[in-house]
Give the backbone structure.
Amino acid sequence: MVNIYLLIFYFISIVYSQEEWRAPDPPTSIKTKSTANSITLWWEPPDSHDQILVRGYTISYGIGTPSRKIVLEGVHIKSFTIEQLKANTTYVIALTAYNEADEEDSEKVFITATTEIEDKFDNDMYNHLKTPEIIEIIPMKNGIVELKWEDKNKDSSMKSYFVKYNVYGSDDESEIITVNKDVLIDDLESGVKYEFKVKVKDSDGNESDYSEKKTAMTIPDIITIDNNVECNFEKENEKSCKFYSDPESPLKWRLIDSKEPDSYYPLSRIDGIPDSSHYMILEASSDPYNTFGRLISPEYQITEGDHFCLTLWVYVASTSHGSFTIFVKPLKKEEHDIIYKERFEKMSTSHWSKLSLDIKKSHLIFKIIVEGQKSLTTDKFMIGVDDFAIKSGHCDSTWNDISTEQNDETYLDVLSLVKDYVKGDTRVHETKGLDGFPAVAIRRGVEIVVPYRSYLPERFYRNFAIVATVKLSDKKGGFLFGVLNAFDTIIALGVSITESGPSNMNISLYYTNTNNQVDSQILASFIIPDITYNWTHFALEVNEDAVILYFNCKKYQVKQVKRKPMQLPMDDVHKLYVASAGPIISQPFEVSFKDNKKIFFR
């Protein structure tokens, strides 16, 4: 035997006696200077920067609330200029110091600064034109808007009109230039609120200020529901999937692709199916200004019946605090009707859960709004929404999608696979089990194998349970069963019981994607007391990202896991072995099975 000793040396260095065990103190001596479109800040490092390490500073700013953030790296930075600001506008600014301690940022220092009035005309070089006035905004179908305005300036020279517009509450502006006093804008989203303004400029270079902003809502695309409509947030569903994040909410919903590498977001609800990896996510940090976010559906019109069934799948991170609310908003009305509200703390967490709501229809045309909101400004949460669907009529068991079909419970009785061996192999025989019930005894060396696809599907079930009553003949243990690849080298799915010290044993669940992994992977392991020579009943339940062990009819332990994929792909050449893991990996059992060793699937 060769013993290899690994020596690890720890090097501890101290840099300027600075420590990083807590967040730094805030910067000091903050001063500002404003121009018409910029604000310059000066500051000094925290008084304690020689003791508590400062890695840099953050500057947040905005009108009313500091909604935009800039990160400056380095303690040596002591000034910064915020540019492209609006003239004659008061900004709220928050300044912090940061390091890599748990809290990261110091307390915020809030200040306000007002930009100067913009002087557009240098020494009255140009004549100031009168500002046009928007007199009419006419929404049309397909997101088109006609804009009309009045110009009180003399028609003495050629004039051009500059029209700027943006989604209400957004700073991203688009521009159209025309020589007419009206214009058709045809690149807008349906059912969205926009802001418009216009100015005039003549051929001599004279120009006006922009007009006062006017707002208008584009006509929504109304989706008529005769039977049902679905949105899974994939590209092929774009027509019925025109959801958008409320621009007036501080938190924004985002479309997530769970196939992106190194993503810390949850796996999609139906993992392993091509083109089924997208869903919507809403995250809230401890920033006190980011309190809620709303996801808004397109307009729906239900033509028949007085009820409709709304279903969606919801993911709630286990650390979430706050509330989850679903509203119905009637067309051309400001009030919202709450149809569902629950605290995150009371909802199922760390896996996708289906929510079905049977709703009495009170309005012909309506939107659905999904909201995540903090209870306290310091709360954090992360929630996901996928597979949104509306069906005319009541919710009932006859309306199923792929996922609900998977919830129908079926099972495979593994002992049914050994009946022929009982009659033809002396190493497999009937015996008495627990309480005198029939059981099957299997000795080491016998190979019991059947084609996997003769009994189980090509894509293994998303949620399942393995139930067994066994009596081990010795402490060597082995595999209760194993599903192996064509070469008998990788265990796709299996359960083993092995010795773990003088008085314990280990139950392990194998779960491997044989298409892209070269070694057998253990999804979860549990330490249990020694069960040799005794009839023992246990079950392993796999439900989304949790593996639960039930031992002697009691819930014994739960382990949170990350499965990828959520449904194992199995080829026609996969084989199912009973009481072993094939001729190469082997580890056969000498064991008695009571007549209830089954695998349940949902």
